[in-house]
Amino acid sequence: MGGRTRGISITGVVLVMAATFALPLGAAVATQLFPIGGAWGVTAVRLILASVFLMLLARPTPWRWTKTAWRDVVLFGITLAGLNGFFYAAVERIPLGVAVAIEFVGPLALAVFLSTNRRDLIWIGLAGLGLVVLGVESLAADVTFDLLGILFAALSGVSWAFYILFSARVGRQLAGLEGLPVATIVAALVLLPVGFSGMVDLALTPEIYWLALAMAVLSTVIPVSFEMAALRRLPRNAFSILLSLEPVFAALIGWVLLEQTFGVLRSVAIFLIIGATIGMTVSAARLSREVVDQHEVRARDERESGPG
To answer: Cα dist. 99→40, 45, 91, 214, 276 in Å?
Structure first.
């Protein structure tokens, strides 16, 4: 139960916020590359570039790992491939708001499953309502989307839930970013069969190299490394609900940088998600204080009732 009663770390919250802000920036860059390399090719290139950067940064020593650590890193890499590849494939076929709303069912479901505090269900429900409103807003825009896109978004959400679990396990077993470079290489290898032709097309277009590098840093290096660091500081249910800030930042970035519309429904959704995030943070902090107080009272009682 120790992992579920940890207090809220301000550093952990800031790390998640930075990660969720970097992701939509990276996605905005990635959309510029889709016409050349397609979703799978762009994702594979992103992961390869990120793995090179992370290998230089972290300098892992995998020959020292246990079999359990190797297993978890490989599974972490597979979930990383699914999370990124399926999401970009979904965005190619359905509106971004719908894709994000469907994808977030994964971490929200995980938050419900991991929660030991009934008050958390209020904030989880509030965040879920905000995501539904985002999806409704996108549907109201009268744009076409297909069932395959919905399936890809759902698979991305499932991958995200398992990504959170395996990221936490790898973070507990290996110090720093030790497991992340190898997991990113695994993810790139998983996507290689479906992304190879797109990778070739991107490689033959030198003028977009800087965009590809920016995409890799914003979409993989910053978010994944920050999230792994945050998972060492936050309960997993609180981490899952804090991820709901991503569609908020995505909406704001789309409005400011991409000149996308910012209507009443989107504003309502943003306020719901922000309210849920604040509520979960305060609730988890209060629960942590209650647990600490209980331990202190128990320790005092044991001292007072000791041998005498």
So the answer is: 16, 22, 6, 23, 20
Measured torsion, CA atoms of residues 183, 163, 139, 269, in degrees rounded to the nearest 10: -120
Whole-model pTM? 0.73
pLDDT in tens, 39-93: 999 999 999 998 998 888 888 888 888 999 999 999 999 999 999 999 889 878 8
- Identify which of 248, 212, 217, 246 has the alpha carbon closest to the alpha carbon of residue 107: 246
- Domain residue extents for the chain: 2-300
pLDDT digits 0-9 by tens, 265-307: 777 876 777 677 667 666 655 555 554 444 444 545 555 555 5
Which DSSP category does 205 fall into? -
Residues whose CB falls within 8 Å of the CB of residue 115, separated by 6 or more in sequence, listed in order: 121, 124, 237
Q: How far apart are CA 283 and CA 275, in angstroms?
A: 12
Check: CB of residue 59 under 8 Å from CB of residue 178.
no
Tokens describing residue 204: 């033959």
Amino acid type, 295 = H
| Confidence grade of residue 3 (pLDDT, cut at 50, 70, 90) | very low
| DSSP letters spanning 112-143 | HHH---HHHHHHHHHHHHHHHHHHHHHHHT--
Report how far apart, in Å, the C-alpha atoms of 88 and of each of 9, 44, 153, 190, 261 are.
Answer: 31, 11, 9, 15, 21
The SS3 assignment for 221 reads helix
